[in-house]
Amino acid sequence: MARLRTVYNCGDCGAMHYKWAGKCDSCGAWNTLVEDVEDPNSHTTLAAGMALIPPGEAQPIGKLDASVGQPLSTGISELDRVLDGGLVPGSVTLLGGEPGIGKSTLLLQLLASWPTRSLYVTAEESAQQVRLRAERLHAVRDNLWLVSEPSLTNIVAALDKVKPELLVIDSIQAVADPALGSAPGSVVQVRGCAHRLVQEAKRRNIPTILVGHVTKDGGLAGPRVLEHVVDTVLSFEGERHHALRILRAVKHRFGSTNELGLFEMTELGLVGVPDASQMFLADRRPGTPGSVVVPTLEGQRPLLVEVQALTNAMSGNAPPRRSAQGLDPGRLAMLLAVLERRAGISLSQHEVFASVVGGVRLSEPGSDLGLCIALVSAVTNKPAPSDLVVCGEVGLGGEIRHVGHMSRRLTEAARLGFTKAIVPTHSQSGAANKAPAGLTVQTASTLSEALDLAQLSIKK
Ligand code: TYD
Ligand code: MG
Q1: Which atom of ligand 1 is nearest to the CA of 105?
Q2: For the segment 181-219, what is each residue's pLDDT rounded down to a tens digit?
């Protein structure tokens, strides 16, 4: 057997270096090289693994059987929504998320609702711990098999014995192949084990889910190469202090990545939230200055969220504080500049706090106008009408720009009892005619016009 050599792998991109350096040559990241031992089989594992998969045969595309590879429902409707139907046999899904967000809980619930035999490999917790949690979640089923095992060899042996039709590995960073020599969680191990599990999934034609930890900045820990070898990458997000959890597809080979799943963490595990708008608006106090409801779109899903602003006049020369929660701070700074130059509303001597309620992140520019109105409402201490929703992108010239899928947003607003909407002139030429019942739609082409419509204009 070849002697093991010390190498340095980049924790970000997985590139291997024979000498330590402060910067990875391959991806340019700093301080990411970690000591490791060279993968003795690096040149042979792939080839050996390929032999596991039957040889491919070229055929005219029309002759291929489209029914193979149809997704199987997971039994959890919010998860099916994100996966565009369910899990495809032979596919590998990577589920990433911060510790404690609920990955193990979600997967245990999935395993319990899976109709055929499934295997849960826990490489981090003891079997007893998982059993206790399963009891609390009412997830103890005859079909659900459990093994607490970090060794890849033993995991493959368990697969041979149990012959499951769904495999979950919690987590890929805790699994190690004894043949590889380096420590669990190292780039060599994570990459090697993931490759092997992908091959096993394809060979056995079973859907496989790998749990992946994320780093402080939200990226998946371990080599980025993991994202390339799997078919689907899901990200489970949420604020730790909120019960809301959002599941998104970052990559999905079998469908769109537009859908979003919403869950609430409860005593009995994760519960799907089919009516998210209602949940977000439940604690709203209409009539408070600085609060505006925005009909936003997350993927294909309309969501009504409350945007809040608070301003405080400051004296002195220190630059006043700006804080943006659930919003891009750069966008907030831009909108403050536009308000000053195009609408004559200066907040340069005010502290500004802006936030989106409920642990949601608003990234679409369609929320610009709502934020501007919330800011003006806060600084003038005048509430915006409580039955109003506002949607529009704000340009640098103070113009209100087009936003897509307006009718879907307005229908959601009408469903929740809102009666007024301010939207861009061009989103809805004709939308005023097609406005959903009960909703009066007004259009604005500039920020000043929109402020007039919201009864917030400042007389100069
Ligand atoms: P967990 O699934 O262990 O997170 P991860 O696998 O992503 O690290 O979830 C941990 C948190 O979820 C824990 O802080 C407790 C909470 N929780 C509930 O609130 N209700 C429940 O029914 C369960 C099982 C967990
Ligand atoms: Mg866990």
Answers
A1: 2
A2: 778 888 888 888 999 999 999 999 999 999 998 866 656
- The predicted model scores a pTM of 0.78
What pairs with residue 350 in β-bridges?
A: 313
* Architecture of the domain defined by 73-273: 3-Layer(aba) Sandwich (3.40)
**DSSP state letter for 28:** -
Q: Whose CA is nearest to atom 12 of ligand 1?
A: 102
Topology given in CATH for the domain delimited by 279-453: Ribosomal Protein S5; domain 2 (3.30.230)
Q: Which ligand is nearest to the CA of 96?
A: 1
Whose C-alpha lies nearest to ligand 1, atom 17?
269
SS3 (DSSP) at 345: coil
Give residue ranges with CB within 6 A of ligand 1. Answer: 97, 99-105, 133, 136-137, 265, 267-269
Indicate if the alpha-carbon torsion angle 172, 189, 117, 77 is positive or negative: positive
Residues 91-110: tens digit of each pLDDT: 999 999 888 899 999 999 99
The helix/strand/coil state of 151 is strand
How far is the centre of ligand 1, averaged over its atoms, from the C-alpha of 104 (Å)? 7
